[in-house]
């Protein structure tokens, strides 16, 4: 059965020296799990399949100890080899329909979307969640084609919330790009806080973060701090 997922604090890993430094990724992710991340996505652009599988297996073990799902970026083959909970696919990766055929209904499939059209395609193909972005410009991913800001994300949420049909209503959403402890309250306020406003029936289910966790000096403390930040302002109407 597909696991129920808490998307509220979704960690995306990065193994580059600029972010991870000379620290060990598995140890860093363990600190983030102790701090309270609720999903881990292993994102590693290396093409060394052996390294990817071996690291993913280690990550899966510690994620399981914390009952947190492990999602693999880009590589359906690695997710299959590891037997983890799912994959995250960008616009240039394997299509969602193919991935679903290979992985079956019990695995989680997430898709990166930057526009209403991309969101529509991902929903129709049966994605479980959308990673919507890029919210704010970020040094972590320099080649992002679309910085869509708060308003771009709200437009996609509005679209999803106003589509007839179970798939649009039930699909989960996280936003990504440049989110940190300084702007998280604003992000919550504009995109996350529950609202009775029928103009805005859908809100994000969580935030996806790379550097504000992975590059932190004390990863556990930084994660716990992000987790503890309540929306500063009343719900946006
Ligand atoms: N996709 C859009 S932005 C991004 C990805 C993977 C990187 C986000 O990194 P950070 O450090 O949280 O800004
Ligand atoms: Mg990708």
From TrEMBL:
Reading the lineage from the top rank, the first entry is Eukaryota
The residue ranges of the Thiamine phosphate synthase/TenI domain are: 9-213
Task: Identify its protein family.
Answer: In the N-terminal section; belongs to the thiamine-phosphate synthase family.
Tell me, in a sentence or two, what this protein's role is.
Condenses 4-methyl-5-(beta-hydroxyethyl)thiazole monophosphate (THZ-P) and 2-methyl-4-amino-5-hydroxymethyl pyrimidine pyrophosphate (HMP-PP) to form thiamine monophosphate (TMP).
This chain's protein is named: TMP-TENI-domain-containing protein
């Amino acid at each position: 059965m597909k696991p129920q997922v808490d998307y509220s604090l979704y960690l995306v890993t990065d193994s580059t020296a600029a972010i991870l430094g000379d620290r060990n990724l598995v140890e860093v992710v363990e600190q983030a799990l102790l701090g309270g991340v609720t999903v881990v996505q292993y994102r590693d652009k290396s093409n060394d399949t052996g390294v990817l599988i071996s690291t993913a297996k280690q990550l899966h073990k510690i994620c399981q100890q914390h009952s947190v799902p492990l999602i693999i970026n880009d590589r359906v083959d690695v997710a299959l080899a590891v037997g983890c909970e799912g994959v995250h696919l960008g616009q240039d990766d394997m299509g969602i329909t193919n991935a679903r055929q290979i992985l079956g209904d019990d695995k989680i499939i997430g898709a990166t979307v930057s526009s209403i059209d991309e969101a529509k395609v991902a929903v129709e193909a049966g994605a479980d969640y959308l990673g919507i972005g890029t919210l704010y410009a970020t040094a972590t991913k320099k080649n992002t084609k679309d910085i869509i800001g708060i308003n771009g994300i709200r437009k996609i949420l509005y679209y999803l919330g106003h589509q007839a049909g179970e798939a649009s209503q039930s699909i989960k959403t996280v936003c990504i790009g440049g989110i940190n402890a300084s702007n998280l309250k604003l992000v919550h306020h504009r995109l996350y806080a529950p609202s009775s406003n029928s103009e805005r029936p859908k809100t994000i289910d969580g935030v996806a973060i790379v550097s504000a966790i992975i590059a932190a000096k004390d990863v556990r403390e930084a994660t716990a701090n992000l987790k503890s930040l309540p929306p500063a302002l009343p719900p946006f109407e």
